[in-house]
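Structure representation:
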Amino acid sequence: MIATLVGLQLFRSITRPLMGLEKEALSIKQHDLITNFNTCSIFKEINETAAAFSQMKDSLRTSEKNIASFLKIFKTSILNATLKVKF
């Protein structure tokens, strides 16, 4: 009986954080880089994976900002070049 309870607790301590990581992966897949999931575990490997997900989301947000800035500059440059050619 006690072994069953300990086993069940161990099972939950692994599956709950993994389900949180799954939710986070799905949110990233849907381009949601804002929502954070609190994935905390007694296992170092799960916590390190959760930290890697957070770092990946930060990098993706930075990349999106850089691309948006580049596109804005590029559009302005094309517009200015077009205006110079017309006149």
Q: What stands out?
A: DSSP finds two helices and no strands in the chain.
